[in-house]
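Anyone opening a protein record will find just a pair of labelled lines. With that in mind, the following record should read easily:
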Amino acid sequence: RAARFRAEDRFLRASNNFHEVNAMIPLLRSEFDELAAAAARALATETTPVVVPGEAILGIEAVARCCAAPGRRFLNLANGPYGAFFGQWLREGGAEVRDLEIPWNDVFDAQAVADALDETRPDALCYVYTEAVTGGANPARAIQAAARARGVITIVDAVSSVGADPFRMDEWGVDIVSIGMQKALLGSNGVSFLGVSERGLRWMRDNRRAPEHSALSVTELYDAERAGIPAHLPVLEARDALRAFREIEETGGVDALVARHRALAERVRREAKALGFTLYQAREAACTALNTTLELPESPAAAAFSGEGIVRPGDGALFGRLLRVNHYGVSATDEAVNAALKTLARLL
């Protein structure tokens, strides 16, 4: 959000300056290619990602619409709201969906996923790597190994993961993955990316129920890019995404960004527990590095709390049950964490 405000402020200041306004023109083809290449590095893939002209939820829904069809079977891991959303979209497309559900304050065990794969024998496995709402990160690498051993197509929502938690698309054998700029990747909403393996692309092409002539058609976006007709991206958000990726490269790359998030997350968990807070996730090993979720303490200050800085109340069904310390992206700084810890201390 802060990055988007900075981008908008630059645009407003540029309104009386021709040269700065001129810099806000749509991306040149060379800049579009630079953006796609940077997304590929973030995903750790040799494939060229599909650039989606909209925020990440559009790309996630596009994947669901392009994969779902009668006769196709999915095992959907649901330990948070976004896993549940994906299963709903698949059902709307006529797919047979088996939801594997656990409490939101826990993450999946890879062996339990392997057992469910053996029991249900799906065509595809879909899951959210990191649920920002709950602060939990599923063991994606181990889950991928279980799916790969069984030849199952994998679909991963990594919007809240890449940049904060380790991710290797090609090495782990991920077929389809969605990411956005607005969480750990120092950017804002408005442009997102889909990593698609050759197998994943074939599977979507084989689906006669997939959208056509639509912003939800992943294969049409893919083909247009390769024909030299890339998607028309929102200008401010596209240029902000390019700025963010350049900043990441200049500060050590995605691995350095992941390390920064990990160090801050470990500090917040340690110091929050020392203050007397309880982690929302049942096991500390289940916690993401993106943000930290804490059980809401029983105090008048906590009951009346509506948010301050990067400390926010729970979202959706978890409102009134937890606090989120959103130390990610442009807020992945010692200064932001220092202020957050002072806020937490006042809530006890």
